[in-house]
Design the sequence.
């Protein structure tokens, strides 16, 4: 046993197939094929190995996990290991019967993504608007009695509508509302200049969320995550690299976060080849940025290093080509000007500017 | 606010289990877990079905080794239940007066 920390949450990306094309998606495009996805048996083994590692929470996500025909079996396999099973879904395609089967299989909670309360806004960001289908899914979730969270990714196109989003969450009987600003990684970095809100827009949204949190205390939990481009210190990304979270991609590659695969200087292992515990404990990608030994200055001697863990490695790689560099979101980074410039462009940017959507192309 | 005559029950999304690593009881909810001490776990188990807070206090007094008096147990139970409610882990229903 090495000194690896204990993971608490497994993020299982069951597929990258998805009916939506959200312009801030964290999934890579080139992997959106069913052929290479882990089988039902593979996932059941991964869940068993995860539980043995001490993992308690399981997030079933994607892509869109509902496109997997074996989702009920996967929920059942996870509950057999006593994992707390969260399904993170766009709600499309879902019907009440399917949701009932998932609940019967032991699903603990369902998180429904809502792109916008405005259909035009939803179509702008996701390539399609599914308001009615989503409302039907939410109504079915409530009728079945499954705990409902609404997940909203905030960006310039919808950030002014936090009060309406709160109202929607109340109407749908949600117990949680996640208002998480887009972080400029993956497709969101491609579309950064169209998505990043201004400082004033973020502050107003934060205040709206805080007022709703106070009003709904004990009835609905409201989370608000600001974009790191508008903070002076970096995000404590994933609560630290390979510290609490473990992610398995559809093809079986194990990663510490959604974006880590984009760091081309690291090597990753597959759960088809090596036990999950071994990968977690001494896989080279997992070990790369654990602890503080990798940190350059100004992180190495910074008082905040135990709080923010040096920020986001994927962001450092995306912006600087060096995953070990200080996160440019930090005002102390020598490259913070990259973020400041993007921020100033956001002050004057056009609303509903054209986006590059993440379109799923079926394998040919 | 939760009082002795409030009826309480764990929220449907809160699931109590033992942490296999530490052996300690843990209350799981979407994307979080709350480690409980033995008394907290006993109260949470009693909240597995809806009952008045007074009933929980009564049971804990009955099970107590005498080191804590009724008044102290009452204060602790109310504080614990209010903390659970604040986190959205408890459904509280005021009985009609």
Sequence:
């Amino acid at each position: 046993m090495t000194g690896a920390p204990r993971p608490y949450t497994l993020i299982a990306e069951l597929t990258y197939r998805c009916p939506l094309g959200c312009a801030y998606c964290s999934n890579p495009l080139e992997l959106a094929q069913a052929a290479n996805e882990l089988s039902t048996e593979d996932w059941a083994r991964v869940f068993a190995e995860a539980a043995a590692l001490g993992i308690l929470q399981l997030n079933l996500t994607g892509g869109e996990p509902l496109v997997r025909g074996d989702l009920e079996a996967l929920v059942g396999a996870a509950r057999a290991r006593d994992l707390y099973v969260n399904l993170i879904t766009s709600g499309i395609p879902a019907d009440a019967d399917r949701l009932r089967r998932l609940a019967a299989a032991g699903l603990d909670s369902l998180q429904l993504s809502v792109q916008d309360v405005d259909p035009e806004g939803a179509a702008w960001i996701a390539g399609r608007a599914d308001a009615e289908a989503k409302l039907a899914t939410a109504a079915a979730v409530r009728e079945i009695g499954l705990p409902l969270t609404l997940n909203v990714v905030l960006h310039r196109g919808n950030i002014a509508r936090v009060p309406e989003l709160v109202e929607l969450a109340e109407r749908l009987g949600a117990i949680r509302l996640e208002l998480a600003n887009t972080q400029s990684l993956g497709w969101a970095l491609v579309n950064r200049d169209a998505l990043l809100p201004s400082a004033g827009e973020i502050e107003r949204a934060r205040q709206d969320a805080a007022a709703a949190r106070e009003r709904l205390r004990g009835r609905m939990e409201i989370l608000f995550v600001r974009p790191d481009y508008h903070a002076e210190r970096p995000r404590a990304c994933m609560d630290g690299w390979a510290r609490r979270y473990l992610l398995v991609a559809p093809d079986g590659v194990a990663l510490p976060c959604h974006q880590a695969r984009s760091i081309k200087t690291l090597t990753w292992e597959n759960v088809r080849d090596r036990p999950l515990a071994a990968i977690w404990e001494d896989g080279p990608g997992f070990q790369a940025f654990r602890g503080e030994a990798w940190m350059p200055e100004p992180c190495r001697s910074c008082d905040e290093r135990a709080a923010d863990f040096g920020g986001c490695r994927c962001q450092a790689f995306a912006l600087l080509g060096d995953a070990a560099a200080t996160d440019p979101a930090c005002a102390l980074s020598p490259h913070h000007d990259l973020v400041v410039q993007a921020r100033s462009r956001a002050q004057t940017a056009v609303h509903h500017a054209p986006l590059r959507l993440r379109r799923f192309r079926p394998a040919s | 606010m939760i009082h002795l005559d409030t009826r309480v029950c764990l929220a449907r999304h809160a699931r109590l289990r033992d942490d296999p690593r530490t052996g300690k009881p843990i209350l799981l909810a979407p994307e979080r877990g709350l480690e409980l001490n033995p008394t907290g776990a006993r109260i949470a188990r009693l909240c597995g079905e809806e009952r008045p807070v007074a009933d929980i206090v009564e049971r804990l007094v009955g099970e107590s080794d005498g080191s804590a008096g009724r008044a102290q147990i009452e204060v602790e139970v109310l504080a614990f239940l209010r903390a659970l409610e604040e986190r959205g882990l408890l459904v509280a229903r005021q009985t009609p007066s």
Q: What stands out?
A: Residues 210 and 245 of chain A are 27 Å apart (CA to CA). The interface with chain B takes residues 6, 8-9, 51, 54, 56-57, 59, 82, 84, 86, 108-109, 111, 145, 147, 149, 175-176, 217-221 of chain A (CB under 8 Å). Chain A has a mean pLDDT of 92.
